[in-house]
Structures are given as C-alpha cells and as structure tokens.
Automatic annotation (TrEMBL):
Stored CDD domains: TOPRIM_DnaG_primases (cd03364)
Complex and partners: Monomer. Interacts with DnaB.
Gene: dnaG
Record organism: Paracoccus lutimaris
Role: RNA polymerase that catalyzes the synthesis of short RNA molecules used as primers for DNA polymerase during DNA replication.
Protein name in UniProt: DNA primase
Amino acid sequence: MSLPPQFLDEIRARVPLSRVIGRKVVWDLRRSNQAKGDWWAPCPFHGEKTASFHVDDQKGFYYCFGCHAKGDALTFLREAEGMGFMEAVELLASEAGLQMPERDPRQAERADRRTGLVEVMEQAARWFRLQLQGGAAADARAYLARRGLDDAACEQFGIGFAPDQRQGLFNALRGKGIDPALIIEAGLVAKPDDGGAPFDRFRGRITFPIRDGRGRCIAFGGRSMDPNARAKYLNSPETPLFDKGRNLYNVGPARAAVAKGKPLIVAEGYMDVIALVRAGFEGAVAPLGTAITEDQLRLMWRVSPEPVIALDGDDAGLRAALRLIDLALPMTAPGQALRFAFLPQGQDPDDLIRAKGAGAMSAVLDEARPLVDLLWRRETEGRVFDSPERRAALDKALGDAIAKIPDKDTRDHYFQALKDLKWQLFNNRRRRDEAPARPARPMREGGGKGRDRDARFQPVAPVAPTRASRLSSPDASEHDAEVLIEAMVLAICATHPELIAPVESRLERLEPQDTDRAALVHDLLSGTQSQAGQRALESILADPHVKAAPAILRPHEGDAASGILTNALDRIEARRAAREEIARAEAEIEGMADEGLTWRMAQSARARQQADHPSLADLSDLGEDSESFRAVLEAALKNEIWRKPRR
C-alpha cells in the first residue's frame, strides 16, 4: 500500500521518537537533556554498559556511536521489534490518533485474512496446552520430565501435546465455529488429494508453538513420541503466516535479551533453545528444521551484530558450519559478523548443560572462533602443503573465498588474517623440515658407481643485448645486478597480477632498500595503490632493461612471465643466502686467522657466488651473461686473490 509522504511526516511530528524508543531502553538522565528532546541510553541493538545511543526528538532520528545503528521511529520498530513496514505505520498512527488512509480492498482483505489465521493458531496453541494435562499425554509428560522441563518451563514456552487422533484438533476448532477452510489454510490440518476428510497434521506429538518477533503464533513444531515415526520432528507447512526460511524459533524473547546485553546464540533445535534459556542464555534461537538461510542471517544481524553459532559436537555440526561459510561470506560487513562455538564430541547444548551445568556452556561460548578461522580450517585441515602446486591451490581457494566479500575493508582484513595464518603454517613447517644442506657430489655415469661424468661448464656465447648490458661490463657491481633483478620481479608482478598469489610469501621477504619500492611491494600484496608505489613502478618501467623484456613487451604471455619471475626470485634468494653464509663464516674464523686470510676468503666466496649465480643481463633470458662472470672467476684464480697485496 502506498502512503502519502505527508501522512508519514504527520505521524513523526505527533509521536516523539523518545516515546517509541523509551519502551526498550533506560535513559541516562544525567546525560540527557529532556527539555531539548536530547536523550542518551545504552544501545538496544548491541550489548554495552555506557550510553552511546543518542535520540534527537527535534530531528526525529537516533544514532548509536558504537554499532552505528541509525534511523527514525519506523526504522526502530522494524529493526528492534521485527515489525513490517505497514504494521509499524499502523501502530504509530494509532498512537498519534490518526486514521489510516483507505487501503486497497484486496490488501485489506489479505490483512483481515492474516488476522483470522493468527486467531486460529492461538486457539490451536491453547487446545494443545490443554491436551498435555490429559491421560493420553502421560508418556509425553514423562519424556519432558526426563529432559528437565517442569510445568513452569512448559508454560513459559507454551509446550503442548497433540493426541494421536485423526481429527481431534479439527473437530475442536470446528466446534468453536471456525471455518474449515481457515483451519486448512493455517496448516493445522491436511486435506487429501482424493477429496477425503481433512485430518490433523500433528498427531501423537509434543508441540512447540513458533512465534514471530511480535509474539504471535504463526506455526508449530512437533516432536514424535513414536520412535518409528518417519520424521522425529515435523514443522507446519508454508502458509501466509509462516515461511520457515525467514523465521527463527524464540526470536522475540531473544531480541529482548540481546537488548539487555545477552549474546545471540544460534542452536540447532527447540530443546537446545529451551535448555539454553533456562540456563541463563536467554538470547537463544534456532532455525526451523532447515540449514540457515540468507533471510535468517539477515534476521540474526538485525538482532545482534555478531551471533554465535553453537553447533553440535559431531560431524553433522561441522558440516553445517562449513556450509554456512559460503553463505555468510558474501554478506559479511562491519556490524555483520559470525562466531562459531563447537561443543564436545557427541553433545548438544541440552546434553552439555544437563551433564556439566551452565558454566561448561559458558566456557564453550568463550572459545567461539571468528568466521575467518573456520574458513582456514576448511581449506587446510588434513592436508599437506609440501609442493608449490599445493600451496598455490591453497592460495587460490582462499582468494576465491574472500573475493566474495563485498566490503573492501572487511576483505582487506580477511586477506591480512589469512596471510598471517599462512606465514605461521609455512614458517613452522619450514623450521621443522629444514636440514643442513650437504655438498653436491659429482654425478656419475648411470647415476651410480663408475667414471665421473664430464660436468665441466659449457658456456653459451652471450647474445648482443647481453654484451651491450651494463651488467656485463667489468664495472658492474653485484648490487646493480640484484637491484635490476628486483626491478624485474616488481615489473612482472605489476604487469601480471595473477602471478602474485603463488609467490606471495616470497614477495613478503623481498625487503627492497628503496622506500618507494618497499611501498610498491606492499601495494602488490594488499591490492592497494600508493603514490610512492606508483612512483617506483613508473621508474622501473622506464628502465630500458625492464621495458625490453618479453614478459613486459608481451604481457599476454603469462607462462613465460611466470618462469622468469620464479627464476628471478631464485636468484635474489640465492644471493641473500650466500651473503648470510659469508657473514657466518667470517664471524666463525674471526680471531683464528689474520686479517688477510679473512679478506681473501670473503673475496673467494663472492667470486664463487658470482659464478654460480650470474647476474641478470638481458632480462628475457636469465643466465646469458654467465660467460662474463666465468671470466671474472678465472681471473680471480689466476691472480691468487687469497694472497693479500703488500702495501
């Protein structure tokens, strides 16, 4: 129904916002200025002790400085009370003493029909409650007593009993003058397809009324007393009142409890919710016989910004949690998070509370983990990442998952959290698996005993670009080579961003000395763009050695670029390892030999390093300049560099 804007403005003007919200909060009168319509209170949308929730009667808006909830009176009734838009308007119009505009006749008919269905459901709930006191319900009462539910609990939750009679409820409601068509539409009885007499849907079952956010009975759940029943639990069918994917059991009382600071706990069934509430966890709800849906997630987040999913300690509970990951990730955002609490193996909340009390349940809830931890567990548990391909597969799976998160800030924080977890996993594995390197033995014919193979290095004549490179000149320094290799690494990653994920951990260890290049590394890893990083990239791409490389000239050739990138990183890491080895060796022999020996050994090691890991001349072909460095080595040996020159 379309309402005139003037009508809504009149409602807002006549009903102070503080009057609407005041039914749900306790005002902080020391901070509030009642005369000016300026009010402060603890927020009803998230648990807190300080008054960060502000209501301005003059402007007609509220805002929470903690969870950032905001809106007007209609928004508040919809978010805090679970009302529909028209329901909220009708309530405020009644308080304002205004007559609702004339409704469309069909809409009025539907609204009247819903009101009639609600009345039918309330009549059924009272009848089921009465039947629980009868002789046919002896087994049901005994079962409830074994589960720790006394008369007070049954009264609190409206628990009843449906006798095993084909038309017990149907005849009782007809006796009250209720139209049979209305009883059928409410889902209380079923009409056979062959045109036979309607029969009760719930028979021989303990009944649990399902109520909406306003406390109206909209459906029932029934627990069978027959162990051989086809379905242990049965819910009402879809009706004009009830959509099982859009409602939660106990949502109304849970919303009130969360407003008072209680956590929102999502359990699996009716008995779990009842056990939690009676143990002091009043903010408990449950889905209605199905896996959690998108609509149910949205409803949970309207109640609390961070519901705790309390899952049974079995394989089914874990599978339910893992299924929820892909549903929740595209919906996560600031103020819309999830935590997961796993109960001991083979126990649900009801079992745990009856066995060990509320303290044990509190301990489980205190250990609840965020969604990112569950995602990590799903992608890594029981798997071994002992090869580049397996690590790349992990990177891809995690990347695909967090790419579903629409909010950039949330996505960035997920990226950082997963990066930290990967570092811990691979670093611990590396420390455990690494062993001291052994010198390579000469290769032999056939891979076994026999004549030593001719393993002499067969040089390849350098091509023209190599000979022209500044790195092949006698004046080229080791530092120049490494800076240029580093530039190629950064250029390839910027040109081929799809290659970053497989080498992410290696990029993190790059540590350029140039601050602009360090900023570029951060940009590449985080997907951001900074001025310093952009400045470094422009400088790198202007270098003739870089821009002439095939990987940059032909960016569509990703496979070639991948090989060059891996090779370049290998060179950088080999040089770093050689420097560290030299430093350790020099430290170990210090004091054991004279200064000349120390200097000569360092020079010899550096010459060997240059021979084993030649610089990058033509960056399209790593290794073409090995001939020039072989000449450096031969010259060093010929001049006996281990002898320090006399002064």
